[in-house]
Amino acid sequence: MFVHLAKRIAMPNDTPVTKCGWNAFEGYVSAGCADGLVKVLKLEIPEVGDARTRGVAGQAQLTKNQTLEGHTNTISSIAWNERFGKLTTADSGGTVIVWVNGPQNEFVQDMLNNRTKNRISDMKWNSNGQMICIGHEDGNVIIGSVEGSRIAGKSLSDSKLAKVEWSPDSHLLLFGFMRGEIHIYDFKLNYIGQIQIFCIREGVPSAEIAGIEWYDGRNGLMTMNSKSLVICYENGAMQLMSREDDPAPIILDVDMHVASIKWNDNGSMLAVAGYQLTGDKAHNFIHFYSPWGEHLRSLKVTGKSIADCAWEAHSLRLVIAIDNFIYFANCRLDYKWCYIQDTVVYSFYTCSRPEHIVVFWNTKTNEVNYRYVRNLLSLGGFGSYCCIGSFIERGTSTINTADSYVVLLCNSIGVTIESKYIPFHPIYICVTQSYAVIASKSLVFIWGISGFIGSQMVKKQPYEKFIQVDDPAAVRHGDELQLTLMANLDAMETEDPITSLCGSDKWIFIARSSGVVLRYSLPACTLMEKIECQFRISKIALNSIATLISIIDTSGYCMLIDMESKEPREDITNFKKSDVWNVVWATDLPDSFAVMEKTKISLVRGVEVDEAVPCSGYVCEYSNLQVKVVMLDEIMKMHFKGVQAPSPDYITVYDNKLLHDMKTSCEKLPLEQVSSLIEKDPHPQLWRTLAEEALNHLDIKVAEHAFVKIHDYYGLQFLRRLQQFQGEQFKRAEIAAFLKQDDEVEKIYVHMDRKDLAYQLRRKLGDWFRVVQILQSGAIASDAMQNEAWNELGDFYFDRQQWATAAKYYEQSGNNAQLFHCYAYTEDYVALEKLSLSLQDNDPILRSIADTFAGVGLAEPAVDAYKRCNLIQEAVQMCIELSQWDMGIELARQYNLTDLKTLLTRQAKTLLDQNKPFDAIELYKKSANYLEAAKILYGIAENHSKENRPLVMKKKMYVLCGLLIEQYRTAMKTTSRKEKKSAPISASDALQGLLTEETTGSGGVSDTQLLDNVWRPAEAYHFYILAQRQYKSNNAEGALRSALTLTEYEDILPVQTIYNLIAGIVCLHQSIKIRRLLKKHDQQSEDKARLLSNRLHTNLILTYVFGGIIIGVLIMTVLVTFVVGLKGYFKFIFIFAITFHSSQPKDKRPVLSGQCPQCSNRINDWCLNCPSCDWRFPPCIATGRPIIEYGFWICPACKHRALENEMARLDVCPFCHSSVNG
């Protein structure tokens, strides 16, 4: 970078300036003085024009100069609230004033606080401008809102407070005290901790804090690990941190008394202002550092004492407060950019993306291509290629962790041609026709790159060599470096780093900070010469034939060195220019170059310097006696405002003195005389310009002479053709076309009232925007011509992936095929459906539209499109794949498709193979194939019953299976009735049907077994759940009835589970009786309760012992048989039976008045079967009680029964949860 002073403004009455600030949004500069004076200035630079009058090269105008009155003491702090346009000033007497820009564009007081008499040491607004923190010298801190209300306040400590700073997210506050400590608080002023200070060594007296600055990241970060927090002390000790708890900060010593520190607008540069004492004299400096502590530049400023500094919004200017003046300094930034093949390649970054945005802007066609590069480090280019160096974060690279950097070789549209991983930081990149030279501070890598020979891309032999500048004679190949140098890469730091490099296909020049320039030959990489200079080198550049080299030192002086002459040339040795920051050599004149000095450009030929002219741009190239300049500053401003593509206005062309004088001579002298002057100092560009002037004057003779001089055969052919035209206007139109002045040609044709020729011209040029304008302005337009123009415009936007815009033009041209692609790419399916409806049947596009709808799951429009192009089979297949069973089956029935069943079976098998059984069930269900659906579902239910799943889930699965079977039975009945009406069924057909039903389904269950027993598992789980619910609700009798019902489902539920439940319910029943008796509180009831309790206790003991008795009986049977024989064993059994028969137990429960509906014998209500006729009583699904009445309710869905009085209060079936009313 380069920085220089540009303007100085004095304060009234020679009042010293103590503080200054710059509003980045509105451009206002504020200056606070020692007597309480506050000035608000606005120094605007031109925003229109070319590089001569625009930007920092333009004449700055002081458009505002206002004095703010209200302070009487020294201004101690100034803070801009840029988001709300407010200025806050504070003085040493404790007065705080908030100023706001009024309706008359004058700042007026908005708020005033002069109640505190303590000196205000610092104040800062947070990043969003909602809160301000005001710190008093005595430690009192106040946080206020933008509206003026107090949010928080606290007295921090007994030490004096010096600085305050907000974190970027406004969650933390940093407070720096006079003794050097920095405390961390949250925004509610709760103490968190201290920042560890590394830059102050132990034993060194603590210094006062000069500044705490934390870049808020509003415009992005250079890299993800950039340092953004800086802490600096007045003695020059400084540390850079990425966050408040950064364990590895960067430590610096700026070696001066620091007065102020400020980050620029995007965190890429830190300005440190202060002074150095040399004896009794103080020298004021501003040092500029990168976020990693690298020194970039120093600016010396005259004056006694520097007080403060502040950056402009785009880092192009800096305001400096010294004595009673404020200085404005211009900054020429080092952008990462290059120029290749009429293309400007540059990079920038924003807060919205983590990557750098690399822009490839073709200045001829104005086409722009973007590439996103994470952690961009360097960029360089030449000819047709550019190289991009970047850092690869750990965890994102698939290569060895040592190779942490990559260099990408790209063409002029940003496409990567080659890439190379390197193990060091690529700081400098120089590209020649055959090589890419990449350098760090101590290593140089020469990489042979591919190139074009003619129109073919030729891959050259691999060429990779490394040079270590501290050991110039040692040159290693890439593999050798990996094995030898990488082990000691950390030890390769040098005290004399590389500062610049340049080269050609034969030579490489490497400049070092000490002033040494190393010259290597290529391809051998042999050190040929070491040139020692007596100054520190900043930048070097080589001419086109490698005979002259320009050197710029750190002070901005430019010198030349002759690399060919053995003896020093006096003119070269004496050449020197000051305040130079860049030199670009001409590509066709080896002794000519352009020099950028401050905000001017000078063109030099030999040692003769043309008059410097203003220039705010950066030189792209110097060729054909012209210098092309790009205004990168304005382009960066454009991107900051959100504009994506630059315009041709950002390119400016300067003519050198020779070309400028020739053009002036053409205006004053005859062309023949000008031709004679060119003969004395010829150049192809001069002859070319003379030919153009001669053509404009219709001087064929001079034009022919000029074309002969430059061997322009095409130009000579044009002159011969030109003489065949009749009429001056036609000739001038052809000349303008030859000179590529298309607008001038069209203007001539329109003036001649020949819009047809203008139309043909623009059509031939492919300028379809102008074609449309011409057609709309005249009567020559036909429908075919209009449609062609609209269609070409649609193709223009379609090729650039702007499909929504392209669709508008295709719609006007009636290009339905391309319109379909636009709608598909933009996913505008509403418009696509309208397009489908507008097409005629059997249109070729309908098939593509239908496939597009099917691909995104839009079944209805897809079916409509398939039907209109007679693809019914594809429509049915799509419906089945999208699970639109109803639509697919209806479509098949509508068009009488005979292979629907085969198609459904195949799809169901596919779904089963894809482990989608429920989709297959739904498919079978929609196609009325309920039996197959039931088979699949029954298999799933069987698997669930073997797993540890909820009982309700198991029941649901079996219930759904049963409902499918009921639907199957209903469908079979309907089909049977229809068949009986149509034709009688023979006995053989009936038998065949019965045999068919015996086929086994899934899980080894036959169709007959499934039809007969499908409800049994569901009934088992239903009554099991019902019994447990009744048990938990203390309904012991109901639970016992439901549990006794489970004895008929011992093949489904474990027997142990059933009888454990029965035993538990019996115990519950007895305990309920006991509790009821005890509630009566009389002696008789208590005796009965005690008797029941003893009996329950005895039954439990007997139940526990029952298992042991069974085992004992078995053992006794074996022993008795062995001792008394088989006859004695039967005798023993007979005696045992007589004994128990005489004293068998009696059932003391009362006999109910129920009777069997089959045999009319009286029975108990707990009987599941009639003891006389063995008639089975169906259980009630609501209560579990056997139904012995004649009147009951039957579910219309599952066909299960329930008592009518129980169903009177229910709306759904307790078993299948279907509606009671069906």
From TrEMBL:
GO biological process terms on file: intraciliary retrograde transport; non-motile cilium assembly; protein localization to cilium
Domain IFT121 second beta-propeller per the UniProt entry, residue ranges: 337-638
Protein name: Anaphase-promoting complex subunit 4 WD40 domain-containing protein
Pfam families: Beta-prop_WDR35_2nd (PF23390), Beta-prop_WDR35_TULP_N (PF24797), TPR_IFT121 (PF25768), TPR_IFT80_172 (PF23387), TPR_WDR35 (PF25170), Zf_2nd_IFT121 (PF23145)
Positions annotated as WD repeat: 68-99
Ranges that cross the membrane: 1101-1126
Annotated IFT121/TULP4 N-terminal domain residues: 1-332
Species assigned in the record: Rotaria socialis
Lineage: Eukaryota, Metazoa, Spiralia, Gnathifera, Rotifera
